[in-house]
Recover the amino acids of this structure.
């Protein structure tokens, strides 16, 4: 019996689930899973995960004691909720879960480091080794510097909201464990910029960007892994078959599972090593110059941070409403 596309992809690429939906993770059995503020907020709104939200709020209230204010309870619960989802996900998967630092800290190196250590501490108290956690940090210059500090402490990082080669090179030179270049969001930008409705998969600007990054890494022997993310269609995934990892939403995992036919390897480390590629020396001045010149990368990074910040603000409101409901129930 011939293998479906998902089975074939798994033979050359680590498949990761891009969701906070624990049931979906259980269905597709990925090695790893990634979350972000938008995914956690979406999952927290689902009735089937109300128990996780309530448990996190009630535990925060209990730990702080009777004199704690609503603001203090919400702050602690907010900090813990992504870890609460992460712990549930780790019960299902054999590998690692990515948990994101507050996007509002993206331009603050010290605050990002402190928040990452706090997240790792929460997992540690729950008996989870830091080897099973990837701390997600936005690929700003400040975020990359935070990752450099954390990696030296043995805290592994996933650099996200990555749209340009300059970000990727800076991440690799900082020793980041993994990067998540955003394929679909790059496509979104180019479609809006050009007025085109679509691109053939082989000409997709997001696919082109990740391929370029992958080949650069393999050419120069960087250990940082490439994990394509933010896919809009099946073609983007199949064009990146052979990438170190791909993090894929449940809807597209379903399409892959239902898909048939031959899936050829598109990215190959051995071939990349033979390519003629110019090496770029990366420092802050070069990063800033390349970032300014790459309008797509600069606009999408800014937009991504604002989007994740909005999701966090929505999550704070959701927690406040739920805490009020729990308070009313306990008072009754």
């Amino acid at each position: 019996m011939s293998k479906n596309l998902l089975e074939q992809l798994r033979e050359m690429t680590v498949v990761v689930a891009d969701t906070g939906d624990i049931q979906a993770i259980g269905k597709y059995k990925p090695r790893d899973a990634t979350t972000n503020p938008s995914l956690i907020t979406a999952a927290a709104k689902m009735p089937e995960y109300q128990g996780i939200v309530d448990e996190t709020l009630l535990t925060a209230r209990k730990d702080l004691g009777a004199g704690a204010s609503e603001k203090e309870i919400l702050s602690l619960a907010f900090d813990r909720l992504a870890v609460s989802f992460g712990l549930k996900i780790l019960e299902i998967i054999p590998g690692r879960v990515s948990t994101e630092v507050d996007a509002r800290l993206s331009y603050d190196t010290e605050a990002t480091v402190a928040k990452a250590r706090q997240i790792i501490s929460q997992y540690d108290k729950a008996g989870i080794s830091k080897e099973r956690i990837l701390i997600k940090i936005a690929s700003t210059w400040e975020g990359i510097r935070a990752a450099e500090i954390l990696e030296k402490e043995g805290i592994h990082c996933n650099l996200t909201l990555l749209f340009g080669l300059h970000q990727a090179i800076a991440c690799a030179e900082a020793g980041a464990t993994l990067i998540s270049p955003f394929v679909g969001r790059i496509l979104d930008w180019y479609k809006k910029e050009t007025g085109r409705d679509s691109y053939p998969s082989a000409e997709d600007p997001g696919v082109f960007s990740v391929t370029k990054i992958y080949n650069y890494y393999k050419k120069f022997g960087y250990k940082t892994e490439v994990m394509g993310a933010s896919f809009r269609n099946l073609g983007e995934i199949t064009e990146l078959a052979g990438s170190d990892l791909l993090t894929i939403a449940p809807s597209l995992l379903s399409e892959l599972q239902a898909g048939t036919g031959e899936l050829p390897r598109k990215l190959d480390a051995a071939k990349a090593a033979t390519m003629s590629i110019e090496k770029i020396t990366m420092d802050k001045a070069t990063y800033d110059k390349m970032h300014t010149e790459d309008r797509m990368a600069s606009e999408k990074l800014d937009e991504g941070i604002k989007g994740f910040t909005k999701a966090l603000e929505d999550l704070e409101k959701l927690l406040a409403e739920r805490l009020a409901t729990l308070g009313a129930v306990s008072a009754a």
